[in-house]
Design brief:
With 77 residues, this protein is mostly helical. It has helices at residues 3-62, 64-76.
């Protein structure tokens, strides 16, 4: 084997290594993106649940009967 063939083989092997490394990194990035999308959906669902609970609490606190009950409770104390 002459030195020229040896250099060509080393270049081809380094190119294949770089290609395999890029493929592995891209595959990991796709999984991370999928996990992030699932996490974002979970956060949206939880935020909607919290917003609904806050709306219910606002309705309870602004209700006139709630204020009247609180005043009676304060008088009883």
């Amino acid at each position: 084997m002459n030195p020229f063939e040896f250099v060509i083989i080393i270049l081809v092997l380094s190119f294949l290594f770089k290609l395999a490394n890029t493929f592995i990194q891209t595959k990991g990035t796709r999984r991370a993106d999928d996990d992030a999308a699932v996490g974002a959906e979970e956060l949206k669902r939880r935020l909607e649940a919290v917003e609904e609970r806050v709306q219910v609490l606002e309705r309870i606190v602004t209700d006139e009967a709630y204020d009247l009950k609180r005043q009676f409770k304060d008088l009883a104390s």
